[in-house]
Design a protein that fits this description.
Elements lengths: L6 H33 L3 H29 L2 H17 L6 H7 L6 H35 L5 H23 L7 H25 L12 H7 L3 H6 L1 H20 L3 H8 L5 H26 L1 H21 L3 H29 L9 H23 L5 E3 L5 E3 L4 H32 L2
Antiparallel strand pairs: 1-2
Helix pairs in contact: 1-5, 1-6, 1-7, 2-5, 2-8, 2-15, 3-5, 3-7, 6-12, 6-14, 10-14, 10-15, 10-16, 12-13, 12-14, 13-14, 13-16
């Protein structure tokens, strides 16, 4: 039987997914631009920040996910987490050169102190964001849906990362990102919006039917990492492994994407090029979630892998605005559709009543391992990148297209594993049909 989802559910899903992703865009893409422009961060600094945030997100999701299962109150963790998340974003208003120089007058380099502070506060912000979004919101989404509608719900959820990119791109167009005052206004706006959504959630979110876990808290924490859990849910962990490879491919280029458009390609109008691509990719993703519901994982995966490969290839070889648009559109369609398909499959394979305690395992495959391996590969690929000397004498690197070649290699490995798995499943089905 199909489970009918209420309009209130769809509104809560859309609002919390969108605003949560807007906050993540500021963290995952624009904090890189922030420390690059304000404190002249290196590729190594950016890689360190992404990796530290990935570790913080994973540990938070493991412990808070298990706690939400133990207490059985998803709504409390979501709304309270969003409130604290908004406050932590507001704290970035005070990370400015003049404030740093006043507070650390003996520091040899205010830029180095600035980079360190951004990394520390990024981890703090990640703690609150992952508590609210990665742990509680994702568990709530799993609890609120079933096999008949997870693809459709995940299609909406998966399209929000790039819809949020569009919203942030459009909103940031009015700001000169080379000015500290612009960043202060940006952090104030984003922090206030996240705060407002947290308050609205107390009135909007419906607590799903959920049976509170009676086991020990620490048993819940380690549940997803037990060998017995892996053995009992082998298919789930196989798809989590595939998800790791998929996200490594994304994390190789994503931390450097805006810098590549703006610095390497000198596209001051990259927002106008990216906006149509994002809108089209979001539409495709919303549709593709429904395709998953009807056709299943392997049929759906062929297309997102092909789109990713084509997008990476075009972005690696071409620099003209039209072809960069086409490559970006294909890449974004593959990225978002892949997130929708993997997300729905992983939720389908999650045991009932175990959603919270398995969010830590999911975040390992989506954030921790890719967030360490992907940026490291990107940093290695850019080790010999060209540099430019800034007005103050510092040197900044210029990202190049090799990040897309490295991402392509990663997704080709994923394609080979998927093909092998599909052939194997077909042979197994034939043997079962003809014993």
């Amino acid at each position: 039987m199909r489970k009918k989802l209420s309009p209130r559910f769809w509104l809560a899903l859309t609002l919390f997914s969108l605003i949560g992703q807007v906050a993540w865009v500021v963290e995952n893409m624009y904090l890189n631009v922030f420390i690059y422009k304000m404190f002249h961060a290196s590729a190594s600094d950016i890689s360190t920040m992404v990796s530290a945030s990935a570790v913080a997100a994973t540990l938070t999701t493991v412990f808070i996910g298990a706690l939400s299962d133990k207490i059985g109150k998803r709504k409390l963790f979501i709304c309270g987490g969003y409130l604290l998340w908004g406050i932590s974003i507001l704290c970035f208003v005070f990370i400015r050169t003049e404030i740093i120089e006043a507070m650390f007058p003996m520091a040899v380099s205010s830029a180095a102190v600035g980079v360190s502070l951004v990394i520390i506060f990024d981890c703090i912000m990640t703690f609150f964001g992952s508590s609210a979004n990665d742990a509680a919101f994702n568990a709530w989404l799993t609890d609120s849906t079933d096999f008949s509608n997870r693809g459709a719900a995940e299609g909406i959820n998966a399209m929000m990362p790039l819809v949020s990119v569009l919203a942030v791109f459009g909103g940031f167009m009015a700001f000169d990102l080379s000015l500290a005052d612009s960043w202060s206004i940006i952090f104030m706006i984003i922090g206030a919006v996240v705060l407002a959504v947290g308050i609205a959630g107390f009135f909007l979110i419906e607590e799903p039917e959920y049976e509170k876990q009676n086991g020990s808290y620490w048993g819940n924490v380690i549940y997803g990492f037990r060998p017995s859990s892996v053995k009992q849910n082998a298919s789930l962990y196989f798809f989590l492994l595939l998800f790791i490879i998929f996200n490594i491919s994304i994390q190789i280029f994503m931390p450097y994407l805006i810098l590549y458009y703006e610095v390497s390609l000198q596209m001051s109008n990259y927002v106008f090029i990216m906006a149509p691509a994002i809108v089209l990719a979001a539409v495709v993703t919303a549709f593709w979630g429904k395709i998953y519901d009807k056709k299943g994982f392997f049929f759906s995966s062929v297309f997102f892998v092909a789109w990713l490969c084509a997008g990476y290839t075009v972005l690696f070889f071409f620099r003209s605005a039209v072809l960069v648009f086409i490559g970006s559109l294909l890449m974004m369609c593959g990225y978002l559709s892949g997130m929708a398909v993997f997300g729905a499959k992983i939720r389908d394979l999650t045991p009932v009543g175990k959603a919270g305690m398995l969010q830590g395992v999911r975040i390992c495959s989506q954030v921790l391992i890719p967030g360490i391996v992907g940026p490291f590969i990107g940093k290695t690929v850019l080790a010999n990148a060209e540099t430019v000397t800034n007005n103050d004498g510092t040197v900044s690197f210029i990202p190049n297209a090799n990040i897309f070649l490295a991402a392509l290699i990663a997704v080709l490995i994923l394609a080979m594993i998927l093909a092998f798995s599909f052939i194997r499943s077909k042979k197994k089905s034939v043997r079962q049909t003809n014993p």
